[in-house]
Each structure stands twice: as structure tokens, then as C-alpha cells.
Amino acid sequence: MRRVLRAPLTLLLVALAAFPAAAAPAGHTATRVARDVRAHEEARARVEDLREADAPPGEVRDAERHRRDVRSRLWDLLWAVERALVDPVAVDPAGRAGHCPLGPRSTPAPALAPFPVLGEGTAWTVPTTGYRLTAGYAERGRRWKHRHTGQDFAVGSGTPVRAVGPGTVRVTTCGDGFGNQVLVRHRDGYFTQYAHLSRIDVRKGQKVRAGQLLGLSGATGNVTGPHLHFEVRITPYIGSAVPPLPWLARKGVHPEQ
Fold it and tell me: pTM score, two decimals?
């Protein structure tokens, strides 16, 4: 879903001050992004409500078309911002330029007996084990410029980090505030991010199953200690995050507090 920069947007981006890769866009851009994130989630809920109510197919299609239009607008804006800032997710999604620490390519995981919840035909799971939930979504803290955009799982370095559900690896990169990271696109169109890894065990374009090894936890990027930063996004880009625990709950997964 590549987009071409339009002249007015290019001028807007030139005027933006540089900000850390782990921070959200500022000023007018941040307002637009926040508006579109809310509009997308409202549109998604509308589509789900119509399907549950067995609404006429045409009405469901119109609602889904609206949702996709909102996401497309958000995608265009954030992709342009990250390209202008030379963010690795936008300009080096395979991590080649950053020489990311790649481990052996992982293989599909076996059936997930501890988490027999079905979602899209396949079990979903938590992203790691032996964790303690620490910084949550929208919390304030000294380590991020704005509100926290994901859920932190406190684990020791070297703990396996796994895909929460089936999808395709979209990004395996490094070099920004998130350190070594993986982004997986799922069948419902959302992306999950796994950041601060010490090692990456998948490659861009690789299909993964729920529970498949993505890498090992670590303390790369802007951190004070080892942990997994888990995030759910509407697009691959910073600024499109949504609350991760409610998203997991819709898949039947409820991380222990």
C-alpha cells in the first residue's frame, strides 16, 4: 500500500520538528492522527455490530468501505511522516541497513494446548511467558515523550517472544527507540509490534502461526531494563496504536495481571 506524497503534505512535513522515533507526531498532525484512530475504531465497531445484527449485506459493505477509507487516510499520513523522518519501519522494513541481529529462522509452532481459544480459525496466545505486566497503554512516564503506546511485559533477557496470532511478518528492523523489533500483520488488518528484542528469529514476508517464535526479549533501544513492549496498531506506523489488552480480549486472550 505505497502512497505518493502530495505537495501540501510535503510542505507540512518539512515544517515538522524532528522527534524521537518512539514518540507520536506533534501538533496539528497529532490531532489529525488521533481523530482518524478514533474514527477507525468507531467504524470497526460499527461493522461488527452490523454483522452481529445480520444487517443487509449492502449495509455491511458500505460500513466496511468506510472503515477502509479511514485506515487508508491514516496510513497515508503516517507513512509520509515516517518517510520524512527516515524512520526504519518506513525506509528499511527488512532491517538490512541496520544490520539487525538475526537468529535462525523460526519454524511454525505446534498446537497451543494452554490457550485453546479460537480466533480466525487458529488459537491466539499471549506474546511471552513468565512475565509481569508493568507500564500499560496510555500511561505517562519519563521514558516516552507522550503517553505510552503499548503494554510492557517485564521478562528477563533471552525470554522467547511469540506471535500472538497468525499473520505475516511486515517489519524486522532496528535502530530507533524501539530497538530490535518485529511487526506482524494479522488477517483482520491490525499489526502487532514486539520491541526491544535481543534477537530476531523471523524475516520480512515470513508467515507465522500463533505461538511461533519471533525472537528473544532484551533491552535494545530506549529502555532502562529488559522487557517486551507489545503494541497493536491500525497501520505499521507510530501513532496508530490502539489499546492492546482489549484487542487481545476480543481474541479470547486475557494476560494475567
Answer: 0.84
